[in-house]
Amino acid sequence: MNIREIVGLAPVIPVLTITDLEHAVPLARALSAGGLKVLEITLRTPVALAAIEAMRKAVPDAVIGVGTLTRAVDFAAADRVGAQFGVTPGLTPELAAASRGARFPLLPGVMTPTELIAARIAGFNVLKLFPAEQAGGVAMLRALGAPFPDVFFCPTGGITRATAPDYLELRNVVCVGGSWVAPRAMLAAGDWAGIEALARDAAGLQRA
To answer: Could you give the angle at which helices 93-100 and 72-80 cross, rounded to 10 degrees?
Structure first.
């Protein structure tokens, strides 16, 4: 699948930072069972790559991606564990070049109109607005819609269950990224039923 197809699978992409490898598979199963089958695992912990590999093997119906790609070498490492898409917080020429050699599509992050133009020149028209709230949130996305009608977004960063519907009302927003569907307290407690319920609620959010 290309990145437009992937981000269109659900209104919310869980952004997951996994510190305990034992949580990876039950977390993926709970989120997938709740209807959120596209999962982003951030490269912020030593077990992130192993978590992606474990999820890919145990939950084949899910689409498991790698987030926080900040170096060209990260793409090769993500490829080796079977990541199905990648996400960056920003975009540089080096990252764009690395993405062309990867076996998975990329959702690159931008924050300003200048960065958006550069990403579009590099061949990307589905982007992550990051950090969304700090970048201007709903108002920023609404303002970008007129000069860039061909660009679509997955805003991520600071979005909550309460604010997600406001983003999803925008025609240039395909989905949002959020971590509220997997709270740390529920992860620590192994409350997979509770996480599944949060996922089911998020999967039911309406898009424009």
So the answer is: 30
Catalytic residue among 128, 133, 169, 196: 128
Q: What per-residue confidence (pLDDT) applies to 173?
A: 98
At 87-101, the pLDDT tens digits run: 999 999 999 999 999
What are the respective helix, strand and coil percentages of the chain, to the nearest 5? 40, 15, 40
- 188-191 LR contacts (CB < 8 Å, sep 24+): 190/23, 190/26
- 57 belongs to the catalytic site: no
- Sort residue 137 into left (φ over 0), alpha (ψ -120 to 50) or beta: left
Are residues 30 and 193 in contact, defined by beta-carbon separation less than 8 angstroms?
yes
Kindly report the number of other CB atoms within 10 A of residue 123's CB atom.
11
196 is catalytic: no
For 7-34, the pLDDT digits (tens) are 999 999 999 999 999 999 999 999 999 9
How does residue 123 score in pLDDT terms, banded at 50, 70 and 90?
very high
Among residues 5, 22, 37, 40, the one annotated as catalytic is 40
From the list 76, 128, 73, 72, the residue with the least C-alpha distance to 104 is 76
Instruction: Give Cβ neighbours of residue 151 (< 8 Å, ≥ 6 apart).
Output: 116, 120, 125, 126, 127, 144, 172
pLDDT given at position 98 = 97
